[in-house]
UniProtKB/TrEMBL annotation:
<dbReference type="InterPro" id="IPR016856">
    <property type="entry name" value="QueF_type1"/>
</dbReference>
<feature type="active site" description="Proton donor">
    <location>
        <position position="56"/>
    </location>
</feature>
<dbReference type="InterPro" id="IPR043133">
    <property type="entry name" value="GTP-CH-I_C/QueF"/>
</dbReference>
<keyword id="KW-0963">Cytoplasm</keyword>
<keyword id="KW-0560">Oxidoreductase</keyword>
<feature type="active site" description="Thioimide intermediate">
    <location>
        <position position="49"/>
    </location>
</feature>
<feature type="binding site">
    <location>
        <begin position="90"/>
        <end position="91"/>
    </location>
    <ligand>
        <name>substrate</name>
    </ligand>
</feature>
<dbReference type="Pfam" id="PF14489">
    <property type="entry name" value="QueF"/>
</dbReference>
<dbReference type="InterPro" id="IPR029500">
    <property type="entry name" value="QueF"/>
</dbReference>
<keyword id="KW-0671">Queuosine biosynthesis</keyword>
<dbReference type="InterPro" id="IPR050084">
    <property type="entry name" value="NADPH_dep_7-cyano-7-deazaG_red"/>
</dbReference>
<comment type="similarity">
    <text>Belongs to the GTP cyclohydrolase I family. QueF type 1 subfamily.</text>
</comment>
<comment type="pathway">
    <text>tRNA modification; tRNA-queuosine biosynthesis.</text>
</comment>
<protein>
    <recommendedName>
        <fullName>NADPH-dependent 7-cyano-7-deazaguanine reductase</fullName>
        <ecNumber>1.7.1.13</ecNumber>
    </recommendedName>
</protein>
<comment type="function">
    <text>Catalyzes the NADPH-dependent reduction of 7-cyano-7-deazaguanine (preQ0) to 7-aminomethyl-7-deazaguanine (preQ1).</text>
</comment>
<keyword id="KW-0521">NADP</keyword>
<feature type="binding site">
    <location>
        <begin position="71"/>
        <end position="73"/>
    </location>
    <ligand>
        <name>substrate</name>
    </ligand>
</feature>
């Protein structure tokens, strides 16, 4: 079986899933045999506050070192888009994305930084990590400066 046989979203028109639980995270066989890191960045992530119904915005950075699988990027984009109408706190959104990726692709190591924009005057940054980075893996800083407001 070809490593791309089970991709149903790539190259097709797909509506946003109604919820993260309904989203399908497709994966592709890891094309490399040396340890390396993949970075996925979503600078305009959106979810909904479960109390007020107001939109919340974050800059997400996902870093992972694949074992057998990599996440297919269009499927990942649709998965993140499914949060647009999903009500949950920043902590649950950020850690939930990381945990779902761990379940689907079983990476050697994964970390996610959720850099949330302020609501009520307080920015909230949420971090989740799974596993230990492979020895010698180059892991750059996530590159998101602390929130400084207008200052």
């Amino acid at each position: 079986m070809d490593r791309y046989d089970r991709l149903n979203q790539l190259g097709a028109q797909n509506p946003l899933p109604a919820s993260p639980d309904e989203a399908v995270l497709e994966r592709v066989a890891n094309p490399c045999d040396a340890p390396y890191m993949v970075r996925l960045v979503a600078p305009e992530f959106t979810s909904i506050c479960p109390v007020t119904g107001q939109p919340d915005f974050a800059h997400l950075v996902v870093d992972y070192s694949p074992k057998d699988w990599i996440v297919e990027s269009k499927a990942f984009k649709l998965f993140l888009g499914s949060y647009r109408n999903h009500g949950d706190f920043h902590e649950a959104c950020t850690t939930g994305i990381g945990q779902r990726l761990v379940r689907e692709i079983d990476p050697l190591w994964l970390r996610i930084g959720g850099y949330w924009y302020p609501r009520g005057g307080i920015p909230i940054d949420v971090f989740y990590q799974h596993g230990t980075p492979p020895e010698g893996l180059w892991i750059p800083d996530q590159g998101v400066p602390p929130y400084r407001g207008r200052g």
